[in-house]
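Q: Got one fold?
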Amino acid sequence: DSLKAAGIGGTAVVWVLIDVEGAVRKVELHESSGIDALDTAALKAAFEFQFKHALREDQIVAVWVAIPITFSSIAGKPTEATLAQLKATLRLIATFQEKRYEETGEYYQSYEALLERATRDLQESGTPAVLPRAGVEVSFEAGERGWAAVAHKDGLECAMFYGEIAAPRDYAEHGRAVCK
Protein backbone atom coordinates (compact mmCIF):
# COMPACT_ATOMS: atom_id res chain seq x y z
CA ASP A 1 0.00 0.00 0.00
CA SER A 2 2.87 2.41 0.68
CA LEU A 3 4.19 1.86 -2.87
CA LYS A 4 0.73 2.48 -4.30
CA ALA A 5 0.36 5.68 -2.27
CA ALA A 6 3.76 6.80 -3.57
CA GLY A 7 2.52 6.34 -7.15
CA ILE A 8 4.68 3.27 -7.79
CA GLY A 9 3.24 0.39 -9.76
CA GLY A 10 4.25 -2.14 -12.36
CA THR A 11 3.90 -5.64 -13.67
CA ALA A 12 5.95 -8.71 -12.82
CA VAL A 13 5.54 -11.89 -14.84
CA VAL A 14 5.87 -15.08 -12.81
CA TRP A 15 6.12 -18.66 -14.02
CA VAL A 16 3.85 -20.92 -12.03
CA LEU A 17 4.07 -24.71 -11.92
CA ILE A 18 0.55 -26.12 -11.59
CA ASP A 19 0.38 -29.76 -10.53
CA VAL A 20 -2.14 -32.40 -11.66
CA GLU A 21 -4.50 -31.35 -8.88
CA GLY A 22 -4.42 -27.67 -9.91
CA ALA A 23 -2.27 -26.59 -6.95
CA VAL A 24 0.66 -24.20 -7.30
CA ARG A 25 3.86 -26.13 -6.57
CA LYS A 26 6.58 -23.69 -7.61
CA VAL A 27 6.90 -20.06 -8.75
CA GLU A 28 9.78 -18.27 -10.44
CA LEU A 29 10.21 -14.68 -11.51
CA HIS A 30 10.17 -14.54 -15.32
CA GLU A 31 10.15 -10.77 -15.92
CA SER A 32 10.89 -8.26 -13.20
CA SER A 33 8.71 -5.21 -12.61
CA GLY A 34 11.96 -3.38 -11.92
CA ILE A 35 11.00 -2.97 -8.26
CA ASP A 36 12.16 -5.67 -5.81
CA ALA A 37 9.20 -5.17 -3.45
CA LEU A 38 6.69 -5.67 -6.28
CA ASP A 39 8.53 -8.76 -7.55
CA THR A 40 8.50 -10.26 -4.05
CA ALA A 41 4.79 -9.50 -3.65
CA ALA A 42 4.04 -11.07 -7.06
CA LEU A 43 5.87 -14.29 -6.13
CA LYS A 44 4.02 -14.45 -2.82
CA ALA A 45 0.64 -13.74 -4.47
CA ALA A 46 1.16 -16.48 -7.07
CA PHE A 47 1.12 -19.12 -4.32
CA GLU A 48 -2.40 -17.96 -3.41
CA PHE A 49 -3.83 -18.71 -6.86
CA GLN A 50 -6.02 -21.73 -7.46
CA PHE A 51 -6.31 -23.44 -10.83
CA LYS A 52 -8.14 -26.21 -12.57
CA HIS A 53 -5.79 -28.97 -13.73
CA ALA A 54 -4.39 -28.80 -17.25
CA LEU A 55 -5.16 -31.30 -20.01
CA ARG A 56 -2.95 -32.40 -22.87
CA GLU A 57 -4.62 -34.86 -25.24
CA ASP A 58 -7.23 -35.72 -22.57
CA GLN A 59 -4.52 -36.49 -19.99
CA ILE A 60 -4.20 -34.49 -16.78
CA VAL A 61 -0.70 -32.98 -16.69
CA ALA A 62 1.39 -30.58 -14.66
CA VAL A 63 2.11 -27.40 -16.57
CA TRP A 64 4.14 -24.20 -16.31
CA VAL A 65 2.25 -21.00 -17.15
CA ALA A 66 3.42 -17.40 -17.20
CA ILE A 67 1.14 -14.99 -15.38
CA PRO A 68 1.49 -11.21 -15.44
CA ILE A 69 0.69 -9.69 -12.04
CA THR A 70 0.01 -5.97 -12.15
CA PHE A 71 0.16 -3.61 -9.21
CA SER A 72 -1.57 -0.32 -9.96
CA SER A 73 0.21 2.83 -8.91
CA ILE A 74 -2.76 4.99 -7.96
CA ALA A 75 -6.33 3.78 -7.58
CA GLY A 76 -8.21 4.52 -10.77
CA LYS A 77 -5.13 5.71 -12.68
CA PRO A 78 -4.00 3.29 -15.39
CA THR A 79 -0.34 2.28 -15.46
CA GLU A 80 1.96 1.73 -18.42
CA ALA A 81 1.54 -1.97 -17.66
CA THR A 82 -2.20 -1.67 -18.39
CA LEU A 83 -1.45 -0.05 -21.73
CA ALA A 84 1.04 -2.82 -22.54
CA GLN A 85 -1.54 -5.46 -21.55
CA LEU A 86 -4.16 -3.97 -23.88
CA LYS A 87 -1.72 -3.83 -26.79
CA ALA A 88 -0.58 -7.41 -26.07
CA THR A 89 -4.22 -8.53 -26.16
CA LEU A 90 -4.69 -6.98 -29.60
CA ARG A 91 -1.38 -8.47 -30.85
CA LEU A 92 -2.55 -11.90 -29.65
CA ILE A 93 -5.81 -11.46 -31.54
CA ALA A 94 -3.96 -10.36 -34.68
CA THR A 95 -1.50 -13.27 -34.54
CA PHE A 96 -4.18 -15.93 -34.16
CA GLN A 97 -6.53 -14.33 -36.70
CA GLU A 98 -3.69 -14.33 -39.25
CA LYS A 99 -2.84 -17.95 -38.42
CA ARG A 100 -6.50 -19.01 -38.75
CA TYR A 101 -6.87 -17.19 -42.08
CA GLU A 102 -3.73 -18.82 -43.49
CA GLU A 103 -4.98 -22.27 -42.42
CA THR A 104 -8.67 -22.01 -43.41
CA GLY A 105 -9.30 -18.82 -45.38
CA GLU A 106 -11.60 -17.66 -42.55
CA TYR A 107 -11.27 -15.60 -39.37
CA TYR A 108 -12.33 -16.61 -35.88
CA GLN A 109 -15.84 -15.33 -35.35
CA SER A 110 -15.58 -15.01 -31.56
CA TYR A 111 -12.92 -13.91 -29.10
CA GLU A 112 -13.65 -16.97 -26.96
CA ALA A 113 -12.89 -19.37 -29.83
CA LEU A 114 -9.67 -17.51 -30.57
CA LEU A 115 -8.55 -17.67 -26.91
CA GLU A 116 -9.38 -21.37 -26.74
CA ARG A 117 -7.11 -22.05 -29.74
CA ALA A 118 -4.35 -19.80 -28.41
CA THR A 119 -4.40 -21.54 -25.04
CA ARG A 120 -4.31 -24.99 -26.62
CA ASP A 121 -1.47 -24.11 -29.02
CA LEU A 122 0.64 -22.59 -26.26
CA GLN A 123 0.09 -25.56 -23.93
CA GLU A 124 0.84 -28.12 -26.65
CA SER A 125 4.06 -26.34 -27.57
CA GLY A 126 5.17 -26.26 -23.93
CA THR A 127 5.50 -22.49 -24.15
CA PRO A 128 4.56 -20.63 -20.98
CA ALA A 129 1.12 -19.27 -21.83
CA VAL A 130 1.06 -15.51 -21.53
CA LEU A 131 -2.55 -14.75 -22.34
CA PRO A 132 -3.09 -11.08 -21.62
CA ARG A 133 -6.64 -11.52 -20.45
CA ALA A 134 -6.85 -10.67 -16.74
CA GLY A 135 -9.31 -7.81 -16.33
CA VAL A 136 -9.30 -6.91 -20.02
CA GLU A 137 -12.70 -6.59 -21.68
CA VAL A 138 -12.74 -7.18 -25.43
CA SER A 139 -15.33 -6.12 -28.00
CA PHE A 140 -14.78 -8.31 -31.04
CA GLU A 141 -16.30 -8.47 -34.50
CA ALA A 142 -15.33 -10.58 -37.50
CA GLY A 143 -16.61 -11.03 -41.00
CA GLU A 144 -15.55 -12.99 -44.05
CA ARG A 145 -12.96 -10.43 -45.10
CA GLY A 146 -11.76 -8.80 -41.89
CA TRP A 147 -11.98 -8.37 -38.14
CA ALA A 148 -12.02 -5.60 -35.54
CA ALA A 149 -11.31 -5.57 -31.81
CA VAL A 150 -11.39 -3.06 -28.97
CA ALA A 151 -9.73 -3.84 -25.63
CA HIS A 152 -10.71 -1.92 -22.46
CA LYS A 153 -9.28 -1.76 -18.94
CA ASP A 154 -8.96 0.86 -16.20
CA GLY A 155 -10.33 3.67 -18.38
CA LEU A 156 -7.99 2.95 -21.28
CA GLU A 157 -9.12 1.72 -24.68
CA CYS A 158 -7.10 0.29 -27.56
CA ALA A 159 -8.51 -0.59 -30.97
CA MET A 160 -7.29 -2.45 -34.05
CA PHE A 161 -8.83 -3.73 -37.25
CA TYR A 162 -7.67 -5.66 -40.28
CA GLY A 163 -9.11 -6.30 -43.71
CA GLU A 164 -12.41 -5.11 -45.10
CA ILE A 165 -14.48 -4.24 -42.05
CA ALA A 166 -15.65 -1.00 -40.50
CA ALA A 167 -13.06 0.51 -38.18
CA PRO A 168 -14.13 -0.07 -34.56
CA ARG A 169 -13.24 3.48 -33.45
CA ASP A 170 -12.45 6.68 -35.32
CA TYR A 171 -8.84 6.49 -34.12
CA ALA A 172 -8.22 2.82 -35.02
CA GLU A 173 -5.58 2.10 -37.64
CA HIS A 174 -5.46 -0.79 -40.06
CA GLY A 175 -3.25 -3.56 -38.59
CA ARG A 176 -1.94 -1.43 -35.69
CA ALA A 177 -3.09 -1.12 -32.06
CA VAL A 178 -3.90 2.49 -31.22
CA CYS A 179 -4.88 3.58 -27.70
CA LYS A 180 -6.72 6.47 -26.04
Observations:
- Strands lie at 10-18, 24-31, 54-56, 59-61, 63-71, 137-142, 146-153, 156-163, 178-179.
